[in-house]
What does this fold into?
Amino acid sequence: MYDSRSIELDRTVFLLDVLISVSVFIFSFQIRNFFRLDGEVDLYSHLFLLPLLLVLIISLLSNFGAYDLPRNSTAVRYVWAVFRAVFLGVGVVLILLFLFKIQYISRAVIITFAATEFMALALFRIAVRRYYFYLIATGKYSLKVLVVGTGDRAKDLIEELGRQADWGVKIIGYLDPDPDPERVGREIRGAVVLGTLGDIDKCLKNHVIDEVIVAIPRSMLEDVESIVIACEEEGIKLRFMVDIFNVRVAKISLTLLGEIPLLTMESVVQDSTQLLLKRIFDFSFTLLAMPFVLPVIALAGLAIKIDSPGPVFFVQQRVGLRKQIFPMIKLRSMYNDAEGRLVEIEHLNEAEGPIFKMENDPRITRVGRFIRRTSIDELPQLFNVLRGEMSLVGPRPMSIRDVELFDRGIQRKRFSVKPGLTCIWQISGRSDLPFHKWLELDLEYIENWSLALDLKILLKTPWAVLSAKGAA
It folds into this structure.
């Protein structure tokens, strides 16, 4: 698997398999008791079977290829793998019950479980497969690559990427190591030469790029430092078709693309297992919070409608992970024409750096001041968390306008992690902090990220919100 997204998909399917299996087991027990096929039985007397069934079925699913990537399998193969795994696993359980003469276990529960589990897991894999190819067709998760080099090595790399990239690949363009400007604009294998090595900063700033791959002979890598620094500042993964270089990065690893060795240099180390656990926590916590959050949003929405004309929600395009644009949802705290009036008052900006802040902003409504001070206006962003565009903890997503005003490459390193509702800045003064300090705290979070740090920030956030310190 060349792309880490394939590993994430594999782990997600595994966790959902466990969740589906547990749900089906409880459902089967309830169905059996509803029809009272052979008298009512106790759920707790059957629970010891659940771990055994999970171990057997999950192991057999893996053995029969049910976790193969959709591009390497078919719907029929998936269904056949699920059929063998479920019925062989259930068959082993039935044999054990017979050999040990365990009579109090309802066979109706087990048979219902087997049939329902097969249908649920088979339909789930068909749905995952369809969604996978839908994503491939849209190109949403295609690997976006900037290639440094235009020679035969670069062409060989592109061919191998097309065969190996599980989610598709999109070549953003090439940088020519030769400083001759006449080569700029030339097309190679469907992509354009965007510039020379001196244009690396401009290319990384103006394009959405997942990886930069250096595909030039080692003899031409005399001045590679600018590439490493540019990628380190942007938080973009850097790979070399060469031997290891003595440069300071957070993580260096070697990946084989067919027979081509690629050196990976990452300025931000993020363990994929911890990221998966973070996503599970974000999703679960948000779902549990919804019964409490939705009434607050409804009441605030009613107050907004009464206070001023216009929609309840304000949706603005924000820059997220790897500079992907997504619609961030907030409760409207300003008058409906606030965006258009920004140009009129931009000269009154009281904030340092690219962000705009004005203590007595005339565009803010009466209700808006209250929901901003209490951060109620941010609650709809929990829907962005459910959609996977944001996390509970992470650097705040910035508007396209603010990002375009960044004056240093290192500022864009914040795009190497998923944006969040709260971060270190939230518990350290919020909008009272100058922009450079805000940025320092964001980079501190990125460099030292852990699940424990996320939990610490979440525990401190309610007090920061209730105290209204630094609320805009």
Observations:
- The first strand starts at residue 143 and ends at 148.
